[in-house]
Amino acid sequence: MYIPYYPSNWEALKKLIKILNLPAGTRFVDLGSGGGRVLAVVSKEYDDIEVYGVEKNPYLIEASRRYLDRYRLKAKIIQGDLFSTDLSRFDVVYGYLTVDALKSLRDRIIRFIDSGKVFITLDFNIPGLKPAYIVKIDSWPGRHRLNIYGKRGIKRYINL
To answer: Which residues of 94-119 are buried (b: 16+ CB within 10 A; e: fewer)?
Structure first.
C-alpha cells in the first residue's frame, strides 16, 4: 500500500507536545516517520524516553538521520514496513496515515489499545473506532485534529 509523504504540521506537533505526558522509559514510535520531524520534536522534549521511527523509504531514512544527527537527537529509525511492525514493543504510537492504512492496521490497533497503550492519529480516524479524545489543532473546524485512542492507562501518557 502506498502512503504519500506529508509531514505533520508544526502547529500539530506543538499541540502533541502539549498534551503528551510521557514518563521515563516510555517507548514512543512514529509509524511512517518520513523526514523525522515528529522524532526530532519528541526527542528534544523528552530525553528520558525511547523514540523510534519506522520508515520504508531509504531517502527519507537518510534525511531523517542527517536531521537528527545535526541536532544530536537520539531517536532511532527502523527501516521497515509499518504494516509488519510489532506494535507491542511500544507504549505510544503516533501516525499521520491515510484512512486505508489505518483500516489495514485496525485489528492490530485494537489489540494495542486493549493492552492499555495509546495510539494517536493526525487528522484521520481509524475506521470503526471512536477516539477517547479529539484535540482540535487550529481554528478551522475539522481541519486538523489529534485523535487519541486508548482505554485504561491513557492518562498515564496523555495530559488533558
So the answer is: bbbbbeebbbbbeebbeebbeeebbb
∠ CA 55-59-61, nearest 5°, is 40
CA distance linking residue 141 with residue 35, whole number of Å: 28
Cα 11 to Cα 34: distance, rounded to the nearest angstrom: 17
- What CA–CA distance (Å, rounded) separates 11 from 30? 17
Say whether pTM exceeds 0.90.
yes
**Strands 118-122 and 145-149: what pairing?**
antiparallel
Contacts 24+ apart (CB under 8 A), 109-114: 109/149, 111/87, 112/87, 112/88, 113/149, 113/150, 113/151, 114/151
Q: Each residue of 118-141: pLDDT tens digit?
A: 999 999 999 999 999 999 987 666
How far, in Å, CA of 25 to CA of 49, rounded?
Answer: 5
